[in-house]
Amino acid sequence: MKKDGVKLMQEARCVLSPMAGVTDIPFRIMCRRYGCRFAFTEMVDVNGMAYRNIKTMKYLDMVEEDSPLGAQIVGADENKMLEAAKICQDRGFRVIDINAGCPARKVIKVGKGSALLKDPVKLGRIIGLLARKLETPVTVKIRAGWDEESINYLEVSRIAESEGASAICVHPRTMTQMYKGAAISHEPTKEVKQAVKIPVFASGNIFSAADAASVLKYTGCDGIFVARGALGHPWIFSDIAKAFSGDIHEDEPGFDRIKLIMAEHFKLSEEHRGELMTTKRMYKHVSWYLKRYKNLNEVMNAYREVNDTVSFLSFLERITLDGRKMVIQPK
Fold first, then answer.
1. Residue closest to 241 by CA, chosen among 78, 12, 18
2. Catalytic site residue 102?
3. Regarding beta strands 319-322 and 325-328, do their DSSP bridges make them parallel or antiparallel, or are they unpaired?
4. Domain residues for 57?
5. Are 31 and 67 contacting, i.e. CB atoms less than 8 angstroms apart?
6. 169 & 317 share domain
7. DSSP alpha helix (H) spans, 134-181
8. Residue in 31, 36, 102, 221 annotated catalytic
9. For residue range 269-287, what is the model confidence (pLDDT) as tens digits?
10. Among 213, 206, 215, 219, which residue's Cα sits nearest to residue 243?
């Protein structure tokens, strides 16, 4: 079983990356329906798991349609990381990923996420502990380094491999760069792929099938992680699958089709979260689906009146398209 989960990731080649506040069950299922073959949970904090916090434990819920699935955990305490990883293993996750890449202030200020890059030895101890104690494969997601003065992705990758990590995902920005910059170089990923023998996955600025094919070709890596590129764009996975077979033509759905996709997403969310939570949660998703068109602000102002499924469907019916500009019809 040791390499089973990572093998599935390699076979999928394109993985839905963990995204806090985004990759919940409804969103993961939407991506599955449009070609995603391997996905991760939202980032799960091991402190909340240690106290069996109800909200935290909900992140680990699984449903039949959402498989195979990996869990990503974030923390700094070695014993809590192991305890959390064992919980994930017992629940049947196929891969347990250690987050050493999150740049969020609330995460790094307590030594978690990207902060672990400042102490590669400690990160290595965590990886080694989990790799020795678990049957489920342990992977790690990293950045190029903490800042431009402390680029250490090769050191961290070699430590991760030596301590038993089954795969590495590389985001080529530093922590201080956050997600800034439209253009990034995937040279760090290419170098890591050449430096280690375990599978390497690329992450960062993959917003289209052409991006995915280019990164895969340039780095020689074993697959890619898609994060922000899937926001309002769950069909990116089917586009990428075609691109990996040599067809980089992307099938952008028409406006009416996108409205049907939004309705499908809303229904899924309502089934798992109820109407009230869904109307709040879907606000950002609707804005992502519609940001490709003009007049987004006016449309999202109209969305604020949505409070249940009926009003959501009415909201969709009222939106029409004039060229690339959305128009809200009166009630």
1. 12
2. yes
3. antiparallel
4. 4-244
5. no
6. no
7. 153-162
8. 102
9. 999 999 989 999 999 999 9
10. 213
294/62 Cα distance (integer angstroms): 37
pLDDT at 2 over 60: no
The helix or strand, by DSSP H or E, that contains position 70, with its residue range, turns out to be strand 69-74
Q: Are residues 212 and 304 in the same domain?
A: no
What does the pLDDT read at residue 1? 41
Nearest by Cα to 67 from 3, 22, 127, 4: 4
pLDDT band at 182, cuts 50/70/90?
A: low
278 and 192 in one domain? no
CATH code of the domain in which 183 resides: 3.20.20.70
Structure tokens at 46: 């091991």
Complete DSSP assignment for 1-55: -TTHHHHHHHHH-EEEPP-TTT-SHHHHHHHHHTT---EEEEEEEHHHHHTT-HH
**Cα(273)–Cα(303) distance, rounded to whole angstroms?**
19
**Predicted model pTM:** 0.94
Helix (H) or strand (E) holding 69: strand 69-74
Q: Which of 158-176 are b and which e, b meaning 16 or more Cβ less than 10 Å from the residue's Cβ?
A: bbbbebbbbbbbbbbbbbe
Structural domain contains residue 250: no
Cα distance between residue 13 and residue 107, in whole Å: 29
Q: Which residues pair with 142 in a beta bridge?
A: 100, 170
Q: How far apart are the first and last CA of the chain?
A: 57
Same domain, 116 and 216: yes
Taking every pair of Cα atoms in the chain, the longest distance, rounded to a whole number of angstroms, is 63
User: What would the pLDDT profile of 11-31 be if each residue is shown by its tens digit?
Assistant: 999 999 999 999 999 999 999
Residue 299's pLDDT is 97
How many residues can be counted in the chain?
331
pLDDT of residue 3: 53
39/111 Cα distance (integer angstroms): 26
Let me know if residue 36 belongs to a domain: yes
Torsion of Cα atoms, 215 then 217 then 218 then 221, to 10°: 80
